[in-house]
């Protein structure tokens, strides 16, 4: 059981927004966007032709789901501390939890990509984003208790 009152929902919102914004930078043409498009055999016209409202709406919503899940993972459990104990998650602990969660996501993404016969470049572009986003989200949630 999780103590929902111990979660800083503003930190969850900010963590979701930061992951959303990181994606905008990570997948921009200035950073890895061109390589990402090449690995996915996408053209600029195909990317620009996507339904932006649907795409970014779902992206933002799912970023909030991920941030909420991470916050619940980091929240103190009343069962673990029945008499009440100090929760020690801070910026470093949150960042580490986010990074380790990112390793799980990276690994699952890599397994799927290997069977889809994707390249190592594809795996590291997408998996790298997941690891960095989760690390930042964990740091924000951990620091902002």
From TrEMBL:
Record InterPro entries: DUF1761
Sorted UniProt keywords: Membrane, Transmembrane, Transmembrane helix
Keyword Nucleus in record: no
Transmembrane regions listed in the UniProt entry: 6-34, 55-75, 95-115, 122-144
One Pfam match: DUF1761
Lineage: superkingdom: Bacteria
Membrane recorded as keyword: yes
Protein name: DUF1761 domain-containing protein
Gene source species: Candidatus Pseudobacter hemicellulosilyticus
């Amino acid at each position: 059981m999780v103590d929902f009152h111990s979660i800083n929902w503003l930190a969850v919102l900010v963590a979701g927004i930061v992951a959303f914004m990181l994606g905008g930078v990570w997948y921009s043409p200035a950073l890895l966007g061109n390589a990402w498009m090449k690995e996915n055999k996408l053209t600029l016209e195909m990317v620009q032709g996507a339904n932006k409202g649907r795409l970014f709406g779902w992206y933002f919503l799912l970023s909030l789901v991920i941030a909420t899940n991470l916050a619940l993972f980091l929240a103190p459990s009343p069962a673990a501390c029945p008499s009440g104990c100090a929760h020690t998650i801070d910026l470093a602990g949150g960042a580490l939890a986010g990074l380790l969660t990112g390793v799980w996501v990276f690994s699952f993404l890599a397994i799927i990509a290997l069977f889809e016969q994707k390249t190592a470049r594809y795996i590291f572009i997408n998996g790298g984003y997941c690891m960095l986003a989760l690390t930042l989200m964990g740091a924000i949630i951990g620091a902002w208790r």
